[in-house]
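Appendix B. One record, verbatim.
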Amino acid sequence: MDYVANKHAVSFVRPLARMKIKQRSFFAGTYKICKLAANVPDLVVYEGVDRPIPDVEHFHGVLLFADISGFTSLTETYTKNSKKGSGADHLTRTLNGYITDIVDHILRAGGDIVNYAGDAMLALWREHRKELSEVLSLAVKCSLNIQDKCDNRETEVGVKLRVKIGISAGKLSKVVMGDEDSRYYALIGRAIDEVRKAEGLASANTVILSPNAWELCDRSNIVVEKIENERAVKVRYIKRDPRFSVDAYVRKCGTHLEYQEVGVSKKAIRKTSRLLPNAQLESVLRKYLLKTVLLKIDDAVPLDYLSEMRPATVVFVNLQFVENATMYHQCQSIQACCVGINNEFRNYQGRINKVFMFDKGCTFLCAFGLPGDKGEDECGNALQCSHNVHEFCNKLRYVSVTSIGVASGPLFCGVVGHPLRHEYTVIGRKVNLAARLMMTYPGMVSCDEETHYHAKMPSSYFIELPKRAMKGVANPGTIYQYLSKKHQKILGKPRISVEKDEDYPLLGREKEMRIFHKAMTKFVAAKAQQSMDCCQVIMYEGTVGYGKSRLLAEIIRTSLADDVRVLPYELGKMDITEPYYTIQTMMALLLQVNHCKSYAERERVLLSKITKPELVEDLCLLNDLLFVKFPISERVSLMDSRTKHRTFRNYVISVIKQNVISETVLLVIDQVQYIDTPSWELVLQMRASLPLFMVMALRPFTVEKPPCQAAIMVMRSQRTSYVKLSGLDPSIIRPLACQILGVISIPRELEMLLMERSYGVPYYCEEILRSLYYSDLIVLEPLEEEDEDESDIVLSNARTKLLMQRESTFGQPRESKQQREWIRKKCKILSFAGGAGGVETQKCRKVIALDQNAKAGNQQFICSIGETVNLQEITIPLTLKGIALAQLDRMNTTEQVVVKCASIIGHTFTTKMLRYILPEGAEQKLNQSLISLVKSRTFECASRNERSFSAPMEGSEETHLPRCFCTHSGDSDEHLHEDDDERGKLWEHHTRDKAVVLKCKVMRFCIALVHETANDLWLKEQKRSLHLKCTRFLENAARRCRTCGDGDFIYDHRTMVKFGVTESESNIQRRRDLYTTLSHANVGGYSTDKGSEEGPVITSMQVPAGSDDSEFIERIDKLLKDCEEYTYLFGKSCDCKPILDSVYCPLVRHWMGTGNVAKTFFYLLETAAAALHVSNNLMALSYLTEAENMLNLIHKGKPAFEYADTSKTVKVLSFERACVFILKGEVHFKTGHLEEAEKHFKRGLKLLNKKFPNFSLSQLIRYAIENYKQSQRHRDREILADLAEDRVAPVNYQQIHCLSYLWQTFCLKRNNTCKLPALLTIAMEINCAEVSNNGLKVCFNNDDRRQAHKIAGLLNKPNMDVYIIPILTKALLLTGRLSDYVELMAFLKDFAVSRHNVLGQASFYAACLDFSLQQGLALRPFEECLAFVNGIIDDPLIKSEKNIMLALHSSVALW
């Protein structure tokens, strides 16, 4: 058979089954062994027997090496430009689509893909030497077809993909290495070196033959072009097709194995894709695959689900062999190195990914941080493991040079290749950089700047290397050599890495500083009285980025200012392995020998510091600790090891006591989780016997790495104050961002983004800003002179500079921006508040670390956002993603599935819904997984209002069990005690044999970063499927609560859009269960239970048909009189607020995730109406704005949103478009924007075929017509009365609703031009009501506002009081009814505070200011009112309420 090229395209995201390619198809086996074989070459599959290793096999063959250019740029472009959550999807499709085209040519030509080396691939034709000539012709033709069909491929992001090819032939050797659990393979031989050199000579769209290949090929058939000064040649074309039969070649391979039979219509282009099950072969193949890949294959999950952009660390290890090393010696050395790397890396979640042979050496590609292997100290682990491997390999007899390159950063980690032959690998700029470091700096462990920064090791562990040119790498940044701590004896060197800058004030940690100052003051007083009955140790616990080091730096600064001697130092990860290292460092600092350069100098200093004769005699005990050489005393020489150890400890205590007794000494230690056990034991002894104050900072201990017993005793001691750092208050985010950027102002949108994404963690805030800056999404601009003059009015006169401490930056250093066109924005200079007492706005200068062009001096800068930037589409910075991935990778498989499914539901989720969407099998382990996740602080009960914390390791085992704060229903089988402590237990043991039972109904993520990261791990199609399951669970609960009468929030909305769901009994029960869950969970809700007795509740406000207005008013008066005996009016609780938060808002997001435009629009309107129902105008406006944007995009023929399904045509009904404007008009009406409200109501009426005339003449004519219609209906009233009442048509209902609001709008305007429109509106409304034949009437009554207040309670709508009471208080004030005024004001305050209603509080303080101005009396101090106004000045909810804003600011101005 002749090989014929065929252009095609295969999408790799499809399952590995039968696939079609432009009228052709190939067969992909469905057995597990076929999926395993797809990850290894035929070279391994056909020899799949478990032989002793290292195993070497010799043969002849032809090699084809194809290198693709543009992959690195493609990876970075998708990472930077792709919208949130879609970068990995697009990259996977583009990358594998292109590789599939190339590999398909090779497979159809009988080639075998040996391996993928990042953006390159190595193919092999294994054949006898005499057949190499024809095989070379086949490889050349295959290469020319690849160049013709695949070169110069344009991608959707504008990056061109090019390919260049090198070919060689000759004798080869396959080497298999590894251990009992893992296997690796590599090809060795001269042909390997030649094929890489040939590829190096090639340029895009060229094919190069190596010298040996040119010697062996059919020169009469292949036309070539000579290359100057090279023996290799460039192929021009081939004269005839090769005579080599691919079919015969494939048939003779692997004849000892059994295969599936394939029909004529299916073409098996790779023989191993139709393997039949073979247990022995399968067990061998599994050893060649990574654990992550095996898990996916075992779970029958498509491997493309592994593809993602993630932060990881790449390690390249290169071995160069001595000249006289034979192949046998080389194989032995490679095997020893492989085992050494595996043993060293495996303990720290590092993996060997591939093994290559080239340039007469062997290279191992290793990675830390792959899926399932992410760790918090990834960079530090990689460096230390690399150092250990470097030392190990240098001891191998036949290894001359060992070179290791380490780089960290964002990488594409995933399956690359063809559906029938692919591999899990890593691609990215950092992979290229690590490889270049390995070759450019031989004989050492070198690392990039980012690895150096994230390793968090002392600077003495590194040496900065000179810059050298590296091929393909521009601006690599500073390069370091890692030396570990063994290259020299370090004594007292590791100072605190973060030092306090006078111009960099600490923000948001006033409480923690007060704890320190109070404890320190008591300690000094107790020491003066020679008493130790006080707090002696303060321990600050916080995870990465909470500002522990900044807090310690501030403590050091304030202590030095108070003339306290401070001994500060920071520990590293490796210090925990060295006994007494912490004590050694403390002694060196205390005795001031840390700067001595020789042991003799240290001895002189020690003799001057230690003067007591009994101590001088035993100075030899410090020899090993402080690197001195005092002669061994006779007493010490006679001691046994146990006595000597005890004497050593007592001696150290005595020496420390001599030096701290006469002065106040503060010991400050950062990263105390790295204190070694012997040092902890001495610290425990010091705390009990020395007048020494200690401040420590630590990360939380984990179950895997628990503290030693001495550490537990220190933490549990009564003399220890254990403080857990929490996130910063939202008010601190703005000044913190200004400090980090060195500006005087940031945009409001940026502040909101930081508040949402940083979660109050300073490090998260810094990383987000750094990512935004280096992605050119924000710019820092000098302040214009005119703006600077204006800013002087706003800013405080007392200013200091804010400087950001220079730290290691990420990525490449930024180029000069002198040629860059600045994006100018007018930005108002805003002062920012921070802390309890407020932080004054400070004059800043631009951060030198971020922009090298920043000018010295007092130049002020502002931050602005790019014109086309949408901050809501910004992805999580990969540095932060790595922190969350480390937590996810520590979980078992079931826990990971639970967390990822919960992330689809949202930050808060019900356990019922989580159980509903979990895949089969996972729900059986849900109970135990949730308990484990609560213990690990991943989840917590969502009903918890305050985050209490106690020191770890305290109390009995029950103290650490998960706690639930839900109010469980009384019909539950499990009885809960009323006592809070008992009710707080999440678990309950029925018998000793029964497992722990979960009782929590509503849960939430403890760390929002974990929620967001877990959600991003899903691919697009997976998300769509899970979002659809969520909608099925929630949709039948999307109704008003039972108290409010069920139904839609927009009257008969489902009937109009015609996709309403007919509820079955099971659905009704599910909805009731969900209501019960929401009402009992107390998720920030407001309890209305004031006793067992309930007051009367109005269930209907309709006027009976045929009744007049007076009858209706009499009914209301009677009902109000009946309820006078009840002090609390709200008899039944309304559950619409929790239903809005837990049903409607998620439904919008879930339907948007499925791409269903019609359903998304439906629930946007329903959610907006629900928000109005519970008086949340700002939420309603945001959803309506989104709905209006969707309408505009649909009108322009564009997708309604990012994931919208464009395969279906969407047409929005006029009714729904009218609802958008009516609801928006209602929002504007309630917030006091009457002109906007009128405009929107009129647009809504027009869409409802009830156009309202705009001109006076047309209004007058229409008014006459409406009066005539009304008189005609009065004549026919008797006829209409005999007709049966029908439900009001939804359109008619909305017309009445809109006209009612429009009439109120005209009345509130109070000018003569509005009189006629108001009359016309009433006439139209009456006619609409009467034409419905439903007994609806329009009633007029000048009712007392106090009755309106009572009606609000009877209708179960307490939020109406926010609008009713301020009007009532104004009337009471003007009529002089002051006692009633004060009583109502007290009710408003209690109501607003208990419900955390900021609008109610604003109305209360506005009324207080009115009272002060009118009566000269103060209900509340003016300072309190002013503080409230200043505190809510930037609150978006208050800003939307025009009337309240006017009342507050005018009252303050008048005062």
